[in-house]
Design goal:
Length: 257
């Protein structure tokens, strides 16, 4: 368990306990003076606990930056970020690393599995890197939860794309994170595999109360979430609660004009 420095990681009472992540007047600028790019422009929002929020917008709208600053993977130029109730804006690299290991899980479009390791070894990797004891029973239970326990001894090259993404989700879940971040988790999958992965994410929310923040370009994927945030030019410009895929597509098309 990490120790916290109250000068940088404030106690959870500093923000709403109903928020898995909260951003207050957050800006993120890239580049040098005169050539700056405003990736996020004074964004204030929160992502509720136990819910699945999708983030959409045109290319360059700030989606990935929003995801990365929310997870503490990128610093902010201005404003405050609260992750699982702790203010992380002024946290040291060591504190952020410890907080991320105990608080978040991350799922990528490209799976990012280690080819030389079996499925169960890939899932166990976050625990091993954190110096925790590895329980084979616990690893198998997580693989069972994502429906791939029968592939525990298989390496990534022996798995389909959908199966690899399930292993990646199991790896993200093994630390029991407060928040699961997903960056285009179905972007590399065929439609059937994508549907199965989305079913799994939906079940994690409905059955386990998992908080999920997902960036996606796919209206059908976004429609599986509880709510959808729409970004344009680094600002939140729209919000929809349990929209249909057609409604998501229509709103996204309007932003791309």
């Amino acid at each position: 368990m990490m120790t916290t420095n109250t000068s940088s990681l404030n106690p959870k009472s500093t923000t709403s306990s109903a928020a898995a992540v909260e951003l207050r007047d957050v800006s993120r600028t890239f580049g040098k003076r005169g050539t700056e790019v405003q990736a996020l422009d004074h964004v204030t929002t929160h992502f509720p606990r136990g819910q699945w929020t999708a983030v959409m917008g045109p290319s360059g709208s700030g989606k990935s930056t929003l995801l990365h600053v929310s997870a503490g993977l990128e610093s902010v130029t201005g404003g405050e970020v609260f992750l699982a109730g702790s203010a992380i804006t002024q946290a040291s690299d060591e504190e952020l690393t410890a907080l991320r290991r105990s608080t978040i899980g991350f799922v990528f479009q490209s799976f990012n599995l280690i080819g030389a390791l079996t499925a169960e070894q890939n899932v166990a990797l976050p625990l091993r890197l954190d110096g925790q004891r590895i329980s084979t029973r616990e690893i198998r239970a997580v693989l069972e939860q994502v429906g791939i326990a029968d592939r525990a001894k298989h390496r990534p090259r022996e798995l389909s794309g959908g199966q690899q993404q399930r292993v990646a989700i199991a790896r993200a879940m093994v630390t029991r994170p407060d928040v699961l971040f997903a960056d285009e988790p179905t972007g590399a999958l065929d439609s059937t595999s994508a549907r199965h992965v989305l079913d799994l994410l939906r079940a994690l929310v409905d059955r386990s109360g998992q908080s999920i923040i997902m960036v996606t370009h796919d209206p059908a994927a976004a429609a599986r979430a509880d709510s959808v945030l729409f970004l344009s030019d680094g600002r939140i410009v729209d919000h929809a609660r349990r929209p249909k895929a057609s409604e998501v597509a229509e709103r996204l098309a309007a932003l791309e004009v």
